Amino acid sequence: MKLEIRNATLGYQGRIVLRNVNLKLNTGRTTCIIGSNGAGKTTLFKSMLGILPPLQGEILLDGKNIRAWNRRKFARVVACVPQARALPFPFTAFEVVLFGRTAHLQSFSSPGKKDRLIAEACMERLRIADLRNRIFTRLSGGEQQMVIVARALAQQPAFLMMDEPTSNLDYGNQIKLIRQVNELKNDSLGILMATHSPDHAFMCDADVMVVHDGTVRPQGNCNRIITEAVLKELYGVEVKICSVRDASPDTIRKTCIPMVI
């Protein structure tokens, strides 16, 4: 299955934010979007979710314009992990994950045994089953984020869109989340992740799209797209890109070292 943007101009209320956008997401791959604050990453996400219609061009899911998709069926294929995690009521972590089954329920029906088993399996998969009965609002930021990811997985989507999922997480929880992203990718889930850290793209061996100056540049593997010159252009800082040995002795990946002097 493929989620695709073709020759699109994206924006809202007649204001153009991004021009000439072309993007292809396939299952089994992770694509990272990098760019400075205000570059248009959130507009891109909202457009792909059908919240903001493209000003020009089209967005296709499995070859069909997303405007023609029934919203319930669309939610069974595309799930989102948003930046905001606030909930107004003291739900348990399990109840929050169970909300992910809503797209699979008939109107006015309640989750059944199958739905509960799927929610439990998602929590087991992310190693957060011990949080089952804890109140969501009392969890740490890292725990809340993993619960929200589990909720998205409970939709059983083909594509998972993550809008800066490591924001407000400490360094350890960022690494844990990136590990989970890699495991999910290996289960043939297509992942689109906006991030402010180019290291995340290297950790995921991801495809990368650069959003800058109102355009989305052609995507490609992180090792080709992310260069010292590109990072200087995006963020206005000097960065050295080095190769390091990863946890596996046979794996070499790149990492970014900012030059602070």
Summarize the structure.
The chain contains nine helices and 13 strands.
Protein described:
With 261 residues, the chain is α/β, with parallel strands linked by helices. The chain is built from nine helices and 13 strands. The protein has helices at residues 41-48, 71-77, 93-98, 113-125, 141-154, 171-185, 198-204, 222-225, 228-235; strands at residues 2-12, 15-26, 30-34, 56-61, 64-65, 78-81, 159-163, 190-194, 207-212, 215-216, 220-221, 239-245, 252-258. The strands form three sheets. Strands 3, 6, 7, 8, 9, 10 and 11 form a seven-stranded mixed β-sheet that branches. Strands 2-1-4-5 form a four-stranded antiparallel β-sheet, covered by helices on one side. A two-stranded antiparallel ribbon has the order 12-13. α6 links the parallel β7 (159-163) and β8. α4 (113-125) packs across α5. The protein starts with a strand and ends with a strand.
How are the secondary structure elements laid out?
Layout: E1 2-12, E2 15-26, E3 30-34, H1 41-48, E4 56-61, E5 64-65, H2 71-77, E6 78-81, H3 93-98, H4 113-125, H5 141-154, E7 159-163, H6 171-185, E8 190-194, H7 198-204, E9 207-212, E10 215-216, E11 220-221, H8 222-225, H9 228-235, E12 239-245, E13 252-258
Parallel strand pairs: 3-8, 3-9, 6-7, 7-8
Antiparallel strand pairs: 1-2, 1-4, 4-5, 9-10, 9-11, 12-13
